[in-house]
Here is the input.
Amino acid sequence: MLNKQRKLGHCKIKTLFLLGQAQTQTQHSQKKKDSNKRRQRSKKMAGAAGIRRKMPQRPPPPPSVLPPRPSNTLPRRPFYVDREKTCPLLLRVFTKVGSHHSREDFAVRGQEPKNEFQIYTWKDATLRELTDLVKEVTPAARRRDARLSFAFVFPEKQGHLVVRLVGKTFSYGSGEMDDGKALAQLGFQIGDYLDVAIF
Here is the structure.
């Protein structure tokens, strides 16, 4: 009787042990399945992200078209300076009635001719504009038949001063000669003097 009970007890223990092993294996296989599912999901997500990165970008918007210039604005000169945004330059102007000054008159710095006035202007200033400024300062230039001759005074490569004629105007413009020529078009450089002969 005791032997039978012992055998039954052993059988029960063995059965419980086998059940425990089976449950452990089941849990282990379930964990494997869950991990495999997670990997597949992560791969799908990575693939979807890669596809998104490879999607073509939208083309940039077309450049905005500038509005046409209003009809009441003046046409630009051949050489144009935005005078509202560009600082003016200081121009030293020397006048003489009957002829131009010689280069010897400018040889000694600080002893230039006395009949000088200074103006602030820009490189696109025309000879007509400069003529009107000279007339405000020099009475001889206001004569009805007065003619003005313009020359730049500047040092050449060797250092010697040069007086170079650049244009002529009438005191009261006739629309001819060199009225519309700008300083920059005539080769003016900042630092040059302007010599004006009045005839």
